[in-house]
Amino acid sequence: MRTVIDTNVLVSGLRSNKGASFRVLRGIQTGAVKPVVSVALFLEYQDVLPRPGLLPAHMSPAAIIAFLDAFLLKSEHQDIYFKWRPWLPDPKDECVLDAVVAAGCIPIVTNNLRDFRPAPKLGIRVMTPWELVTELNLA
């Protein structure tokens, strides 16, 4: 399934191998999940993931770069020609919305449903990692 993955799902999946976010990452590895990323969204991933204390200590900067490289290889690049701003309460989430709309209103996978409450008005489905795992039977 093609989807745009919010940064918080990557963080959760890298912090623990027991939750739905980790299963989403495994789904990417197996090809069941096809992430769609824009340049702006990928730059956000690069900005957030290396922040001190966010990921476990065993994830060195080199390991984070390796993860992002592998993630990008499994992803579909999406060009952005129009920005839907301001639409969401958190301006940092706008790059997620831009990618979703440009990709044809595919689902957003996020642990933060509250900040994406306006998205369905644009015909966008917002789902949790657990909903994606359940729908694709990644359990």
How would you characterize this protein structure?
- The chain is an alpha/beta fold.
- The protein has helices at 7-15, 20-30, 39-48, 61-74, 94-102, 129-136, and strands at residues 2-5, 34-37, 76-77, 108-109, 126-127.
- Strands 3-2-1-4-5 form a 5-stranded parallel beta sheet, sandwiched between helices.
- The two termini are 15 Å apart.
Architecture blueprint of SSEs:
Layout: E1 2-5, H1 7-15, H2 20-30, E2 34-37, H3 39-48, H4 61-74, E3 76-77, H5 94-102, E4 108-109, E5 126-127, H6 129-136
Parallel strand pairs: 1-2, 1-4, 2-3, 4-5
Helix pairs in contact: 1-2, 2-6
Overview in brief:
The protein is α/β, with parallel strands linked by helices and 139 residues long. 44% of the residues lie in helices and 10% in strands.
Number of helices: 6
Quick check: average pLDDT? 93
Largest sheet: 5 strands, parallel
Low-confidence stretches: none
Helix content: 40-55%
Termini gap: 15 Å
Number of strands: 5
Order of helices and strands: EHHEHHEHEEH
Strand % is 5-15%
Structural class: alpha/beta
For the largest beta sheet, what order do the strands appear in spatially?
3-2-1-4-5
Radius of gyration (CA) equals 14 Å
Q: Shape, please?
A: globular
Descriptive terms for the model:
139 residues, five-stranded parallel β-sheet, globular, alpha/beta
